[in-house]
Design a protein that fits this description.
About 0% of the residues have low confidence. The longest helix has 15 residues. The strands form 2 sheets. The protein has a 6-stranded antiparallel β-sheet with strand order 3-8-5-6-11-10. Strands 1-2-9-4-7 form a 5-stranded antiparallel β-sheet. The protein is of the alpha+beta class. It is built from 14 helices and 11 strands. β1 and β2 form a beta hairpin.
């Protein structure tokens, strides 16, 4: 029997539940709960082999629904069901981590294959720093390990991120169509407290082209890059600052700390001073999201990426059948640090937290 039959069953169950009729009516949380219930109850889907599924999808793309360019995620992402109100996608993940992002519509997703660490947050805004940037407080609310067949709701304005431990990991998502007048925008976030509209959703490509140019200059002529960067940091607005601070995190801390201090002192506002606190977080997440180690080394990389420490770190490890968390962190931390010495300080911090 074709694995695609499971999606026909899912579509029928979604239709029977009449999900999607309340889109835009202010009852999106109820819609997310309903989709979560239907997705979790689709036992045939939970048993689908993801490799066979991909093969069957690729055998004959003539039966696919229209594939929107707005699906800017997954490797690959294939829409298998599309109605006026709902979309069901199958997403194969080869990268380690998502960005920390906010959703704009209700839905649910299933971990069809592969563990993933799932983090959720609350964001409390205090100031708007120009167009597209909000300053405030970002607080983690949960860290959970999703295993095969685990299902999570997607709520409008939900802020979350994921680290996929096995490669590829596979997700099935059900999402409602966001109303045209949705009050939500697909922002991304970084600790300790910055929310911003990513370049992919700007009305123009100016910011992305500017960051791409700086990245090229860094590779071609590092002294000229550092000089140009310092001049730019004195004059650009907050949305440029956030994006370049992300790019800047690829540099050794000692190379850029002085530049940041001098540029902040030369600015007529305190925007760079406030936003520069995000650089260490950008750096940590970038380092851990590039680790390709596999097995328990990858599990530790995921936990270091998440910032889990102390009792919470121990609890997460014990749930993965690790009897001695301290020994685990030391052993696999040494292996990760041998791959990339920049990981060593994060390993040591995690080890100290377990004592």
């Amino acid at each position: 029997m074709s694995t695609l039959n499971a999606f026909r069953d899912l579509e029928a169950a979604l239709t029977e539940a009449d999900i999607g009729t309340d889109i835009g009516t202010g009852d999106d949380t109820q819609s997310a709960r309903a989709m979560t219930s239907v997705l979790a109850g689709c036992q045939a889907l939970a048993r689908v082999d993801p490799g066979r599924l991909l093969a069957e999808l690729l055998e004959d793309p003539r039966g696919w629904p229209e594939q929107s360019w707005k699906n800017l995620f997954g490797n690959a992402c294939i829409t298998v069901v599309r109605t006026e109100t709902l979309r069901v996608d199958v997403l194969y993940w080869l990268q380690n981590a998502s960005t920390l992002h906010k959703h704009v519509s209700s839905g649910a997703f299933m971990a069809l294959s592969g563990r993933r660490l799932h983090l959720e947050y609350d964001f409390s805004a205090t100031d708007a720093l120009g167009t597209g940037v909000t300053y405030g407080s970002l607080t983690g609310t949960s860290r959970t390990m999703m295993r095969d067949a685990s299902v999570s709701p997607i709520r409008p304005a939900m802020i979350h991120e994921l680290y996929w431990i096995e490669k590829p990991s596979v997700t099935v998502s059900v999402r409602s169509a966001a109303p045209a007048d949705t009050p939500h925008r697909p922002h991304e976030f970084v600790s300790p407290g910055v929310g911003y509209l990513p370049a992919a959703f700007h009305e123009t490509s100016n910011v992305q082209r500017w960051v791409d140019g700086l990245s090229m200059l860094r590779r071609a002529n590092r002294p000229l890059y550092l000089t140009t960067l310092e001049k730019a940091l004195r004059v650009v607005d907050a949305i440029h600052l956030v994006h370049v601070l992300d790019e800047l995190s690829d540099n050794p801390p000692d190379d850029v700390s002085g530049i940041l201090e001098r540029a902040a002192a030369a600015r007529p506002d305190d925007e760079l001073t406030r936003l520069a606190a995000a650089v260490p977080e950008f750096r940590r997440r970038k380092i851990m999201s590039r680790v390709l180690a596999g097995g328990d080394d990858q599990l530790l990389a995921a936990l270091l990426w998440s910032g889990a420490e102390g009792e919470e770190l121990a609890t997460l490890l014990k749930a993965e059948n690790v009897d001695e968390p301290g020994v685990f962190v030391r052993t696999h931390g040494e292996r990760l640090s041998a791959r990339d010495p920049r990981i060593a300080p994060y390993v040591e911090s995690a080890r100290r937290s377990l004592r």
